[in-house]
Amino acid sequence: MSQGELAKVVGVARQTINMVESGEYNPTLSLCIKICTALGCTLNDLFWEES
Question: What is the pTM of this model?
């Protein structure tokens, strides 16, 4: 799924998705849940960094 497609599904600008991906923006919990729902994953899958 492209950034533009994801942005449309969750109701934000493509630039917002880009900033979330690059770590320049900390999304609200509500946006995080919308992203997870759109991608079919959990918050842990999306945001947890394994060392």
Answer: 0.85
Closest CA to 46 of 38, 37, 36: 36
**Whole-angstrom Cα Rg for the chain:** 10
Number of structural domains the chain divides into: 1
Q: Which domain holds residue 35?
A: 3-47
Q: What is the mean pLDDT of residues 18-46?
A: 95
Give the chain's count of helices (H) and strands (E): 4, 0
Q: Which residue has the tokens 């759109």?
A: 38
